[in-house]
Each structure stands twice: as C-alpha cells, then as structure tokens.
Write a structure and sequence with these properties.
3 strands; Four Helix Bundle (Hemerythrin (Met), subunit A); three-stranded antiparallel sheet; mainly alpha
C-alpha cells in the first residue's frame, strides 16, 4: 500500500465520520472503537487512528488515555460559550464575504440552500443538516481568511454536537432555511451591516431550538454506518 493510498483512506474515513457528526447520526459520548471502525470501513487501525487524531484536533473527539476515543460531550455552559464564539466568528466572516464574493460564489450558496431544502422535503433531516454546515463552510471560504475559516469549521462542528445533544424534538427548520436565503441576499448586496445582524439572529434561532435539560440517546457505530459504507 502506498503512502498516497493511506492518505486517501484516512481522508475518506475522516469525511464519513465528520458527515455523521454534521448529520447528527453520532450521539455525543459515543465510543469510537478503533478495531470496530476498522472492520466497518475495511481499513487498518492505523488509518482509523489518523482519522481520530484529526477529529481530536478539530475538538469534536476526545482521546482518553487507556480508554480510547469518544465523540465529545458538552455541558450547557460549554454549549452557550460555543454558540457565542460561533456568533462572533461568523459575524466577522460574513462581513468579509460581503466584501469579497463573486457571482459564481453567490450561485454556489444558492445551490447549497436548494439542496438543503430538497433534503428536508424528502425527509432526509441528516443530509439537510449537513448541507446547512456546508453552507456556512462556503461563507467562510468566500471570506478569504484561512485561519478564521479553520476556526469556524471547528465551531460549526461543535455546534452540530450541541444540536445533537440538546435539540428539541420536532423543532421547525423553515426558519433556518429562511435565514440562509436572507443571508445570501445581504452578501450579494454587499450589505455587511445587515449580513452581520442576520448572522447573529441566525445563531440565536439555533440556540432557541435547544433544550439544555434533554437527555442523551444511545447508538452503536454499526447502526450509524450500516448504510454509509
């Protein structure tokens, strides 16, 4: 096996686990057993270990000495701090996106919204959530500030954990879709003041969907990835 092949496998496993987190199919606190993941993805434990190290660096996996890795959990206080950090960070990024966007990038944002809405209409809430994350990643990319974009990516991933852990059942999603469309309109108009205000309101709408008394569920890795491989 060449080193390039290892890198590709590592990227593939990382992407699948990352998508499962964005889609909230993985519950915070889920044990990420290297041997089981290696069997599920038909790769070596070395590949799994590299993927988990990267996810740990992202701040969404916890590595515990002599006890392996698990998906991170957050307290209500942690959740509020994460949401505050995301609000402030994305407020800056959306302002930069207003200054630096191109028509092609606006089109990409609109395409992501359409995919997000279509997935929700088809009852695929997990995919809709993932497309919502991709929408915010694209805004970070348009902003053109790599360090801030990398920080935002970690925060967006952590917010997915927060939502997975605390979201109220049957929370409406139409408000968030409407938020995204309003954000694109403001970015395209290069109205940075409005875009920042809308981003702050959008993060507040996410927070309003949360119930910090909600208990965690339990899933197995094979349940999560049975139809993903």
């Amino acid at each position: 096996m060449t080193s390039g092949k290892v890198v590709n496998l590592d990227e593939n496993v990382y992407g699948r686990v990352f998508d499962a987190i964005l889609e909230q199919r993985l519950v915070p606190g889920t044990s990420l057993n290297e041997e089981e993941l290696a069997q599920i993805f038909s790769v070596s434990r070395t590949v799994i270990r590299k993927s988990l190290v990267r996810l740990t660096h992202d701040g969404i996996v916890e590595s515990r000495q002599n006890r392996g890795a698990r998906l991170a959990t957050v307290t209500p206080e942690d959740a509020r701090e994460i949401l505050e950090a995301r609000r402030l960070t994305e407020g800056v990024l959306v302002r930069l996106a207003c200054e630096r966007n191109t028509p092609a990038q606006i089109s990409e944002l609109n395409n992501l919204i359409r995919e997000e809405e279509l997935a929700e209409a088809e009852g695929n809430h997990g995919k809709s959530l993932r497309m919502s994350g991709e929408f915010h990643f694209k805004i970070s990319e348009i902003a053109g500030n790599k360090p801030l974009a990398e920080f935002a990516r970690k925060l967006i991933s952590k917010v997915s954990l927060v939502i997975s852990q605390f979201e109220r059942p049957n929370s409406p999603v139409c408000v968030l879709h409407d938020d995204h469309r309003a954000l694109v309109d403001a970015i395209e108009a290069k109205n940075s003041v409005l875009a920042k205000k809308l981003m702050y309101e959008h993060i507040k709408h996410i927070e309003d969907k949360l119930n910090f008394d909600k208990a965690e569920g339990v899933v197995t890795l094979r349940e999560v990835f049975t139809f993903d491989c």
